[in-house]
Specification:
The complex is a heterodimer of chains A (294) and B (319). Chain A is mainly α and 294 residues long. Helices cover 68% and strands 0% of the residues of chain A. The radius of gyration of chain A is 25 Å and the shape is globular. Chain B has one domain: MetI-like (MetI-like fold, Orthogonal Bundle). Chain B has a two-stranded antiparallel ribbon with strand order 1-2. In chain B, helix 5 packs across helix 10 (177-202) and helix 15 runs antiparallel to helix 16 (283-312). The chains are: A mainly alpha (294), B mainly alpha (319). At the A-B interface, helix 1, helix 3, helix 4, helix 5 and helix 6 of A face helix 1, helix 2, helix 6, helix 7 and helix 8 of B.
């Protein structure tokens, strides 16, 4: 519709500035990623040359070899993938299992139960009571502390419930007449119709798990259970780069803390950047479902 | 966005109490499906609430919640007299206000600009790029800021040098640190924030624009007279709902970005509680500070929800 609109010269000037401005915003948004990427590929001498980093001069993968051969990074990756897979599976299952009964408007006590879930969105016991609770449940240092507490997300449950309420009642009614149980209706009829919301919520939960660090930081002290983000935090924010700077057999480079930091950041970010373009539309769709249904 | 859901908690009207239980028994399978969710909810969201009692106790881990002595409101009185906690409260309010002032209009402006772009491929590229920072953690984002803003090796140092200015260490300078917080928060969230406004713009009746063009309205006039006014109801709802987050200074961001040099301007309630509880083991006082924050937030949510309900005619209320 906009294309057919006739633009006056003044409109064209405005439009020109809008394009310029948006281009600048796009570049500013992306530049931090590019800067760190170039730095991670830089050899020792280059990392001291300051300025806008457009392309790596004499790129080298030495710091990647160094970072990836560090056993902590490998372990962090393993733990992150494990918690993301298990956490997403559990979270999505609980979300859609809970949302189905709550989508039945005439179910007795639905109001009270929904309120029970919604209340936790607006009131939380807080950091210290939560910590003491996990401690008294004996879950400190347990892997499940990373999966179970986050598995109930009232926000996601409400979104799934709203979606379920949009599915025509007649579909499940006819199955009920044929004698199908509620469980059967749920996974044979309702879930297959909900694939887009399932994809969206699964992606949200997965990203949250991939990025989470705080629960590990407070609940886990066992070094073999550390996730990537926590190891990243230690190296990048607490400047514990020494072990990364040690001699590694077979690698002859002189790393600087800056290059190591940039490489570690890239190692954690590149997987997200690679998957992102393919799944982006699902992320946005979910926001729409959440707000439009509102 | 989180809050523009409407959550309807009113159950269908069922006449008597007895028939309600009978109906419930008939549909027991559905309650069975609810069981795992409710169990986790009780275990991890409601069970910790008994721990709030320690906010009124002289708590010791050894004696536990049931054995510790009660001290009434002592910790809450301390909260308003101890320098560190007064500072945390002020910082929370100031940072939160700065975020509102600069961070709230940013996605609206970006959405309006994006809407003027006719070239679909270009628009898509800008949108896709602007969403990216939303998906990285604050651990990574903060690491990036430390590298970029370094006065010796970062691009910020270079730009200052190029402009002939004295290099500034943004991450460790109390004068600039809050600006760093606000700007990096916009960088991370502005693109994602446009989604709800772009959805709002797509709901505007195209005939309005067509009529305006016939009447000879310029592009700028179409923005200021149609797009922005049509978005006003949405904008006011989002603004009101955001008011309920005034006690949130942005823990994830500050926890990963602050350091001892900027403590005086960056320490918010959440980071303060973290240090009290996890580092100094002052569980009782920490829990009291946390409870104060949660209680104020709860009151704000309820008040704001009522206002939002009035303004939107029940369209945008959380409960």
């Amino acid at each position: 519709m906009k294309a057919t609109v006739f633009d006056t010269p003044r409109d064209k000037v405005l439009l020109f500035f809008i394009y310029i401005l948006l281009t600048i915003i796009g570049i500013i948004t992306f530049y931090p990623f590019w800067d760190l990427f170039v730095l991670s590929l830089s050899p020792y001498e280059e990392s001291f040359r300051i300025g806008i980093r457009l392309f790596p001069a004499n790129p080298t993968l030495a710091s990647y070899v160094r970072v990836l051969s560090n056993p902590e990074i490998g372990m962090g990756y393993y733990n992150t993938i494990l918690r993301t897979v298990l956490g997403t599976a559990t979270g999505v299952l609980i979300t859609f299992l809970t949302a189905y009964p709550l989508s039945k408007k005439n179910l007795p006590f639905n109001g009270v139960i929904t309120l029970l879930f919604v209340f936790t969105m607006i009131f939380n016991a807080g950091l210290i009571p939560n910590y003491l609770n996990i401690k008294s449940l004996g879950l400190l240092n347990s892997f499940w502390v990373l999966v179970l507490p986050g598995a109930v997300s009232p926000y996601n449950i409400i979104i799934a419930r709203n979606f379920f309420q949009g599915i025509p009642e007649s579909l499940s009614e006819s199955a009920k007449i044929d004698g199908a149980s509620e469980m059967k209706i749920w996974y044979r009829i309702v879930l297959p119709l909900s694939k887009p919301v399932i994809a969206t919520i699964a992606l949200w939960v997965a990203v949250a798990h991939w990025n989470s660090y705080f629960d590990v930081l407070i609940y886990i002290t066992d070094r073999s259970r550390m996730v990537l983000q926590v190891i990243l935090r230690r190296i990048v924010l607490e400047n514990q780069t020494q072990e990364m700077l040690l001699e590694v057999p077979g690698i002859h480079d002189k790393p600087t803390p800056e290059i190591i930091k940039a490489t570690v950041i890239m190692v954690a970010t590149i997987p997200i950047l690679c998957v992102y373009p393919f799944v982006q539309k699902y992320f946005v769709k979910g926001v729409m479902i959440g707000s439009v249904k509102g | 966005m989180r809050n523009d859901l409407k959550i309807n908690t009113s159950a269908g009207s069922i006449p008597t109490r007895q028939s309600r239980w009978k109906e419930a028994w008939k549909r027991k399978e559905l309650y069975l499906m609810l069981l795992p969710g409710i169990a986790l909810l009780l275990l991890f969201k409601y069970l910790p609430m008994y721990g709030l009692a320690i906010a009124f106790q002289d708590f010791s881990l050894k004696k536990g919640v049931f054995g510790s002595e009660w001290v009434g409101l002592r910790h809450f009185i301390d909260f308003f007299t101890i320098e560190g906690s007064k500072r945390a409260l002020m910082n929370t309010l100031i940072i939160s206000f700065l975020r509102l002032l600069w961070g709230f209009p940013a996605p609206i402006l970006l959405a309006v600009l994006l809407n003027e772009v006719g070239n679909k491929a270009y628009k898509k590229v800008v949108q896709t790029v602007s969403y990216i920072p939303h998906f990285i953690s604050w651990v990574i984002a903060s690491g990036m800021m430390y590298v970029l803003l370094s006065p010796s090796t970062g691009v910020a140092g270079y730009l200052f040098q190029a402009l002939g200015l004295e290099p500034v260490y943004f991450m460790a300078d109390p004068k600039y640190f809050r600006s760093v917080l606000v700007v990096s928060d916009i960088w991370k969230g502005v693109g994602w924030g446009t989604i709800v406004y772009l959805a709002g713009i797509s709901n505007i009746n195209p005939e309005l624009y067509e009529a305006a063009v016939v009447d000879g309205a310029t592009r700028f006039q179409r923005i200021t007279r149609i797009t922005v006014p049509s978005l006003m109801p949405l904008i006011s709802i989002v603004l009101i709902l955001r008011m309920s987050h005034i006690m949130e200074g942005g823990f994830d961001q500050i926890f990963n970005m602050y350091n001892s040099a900027v403590m005086e301007v960056a320490d918010i309630i959440d980071t303060y509680v973290y240090r009290l509880g996890m580092q100094k083991m002052q569980y009782d006082f920490g829990a009291a500070v946390g409870l104060f924050k949660s209680a104020v937030s709860l009151i704000l949510v309820i008040v704001v929800n009522q206002i939002s309900r009035k303004i939107s005619n029940n369209e945008a209320a959380l409960f």
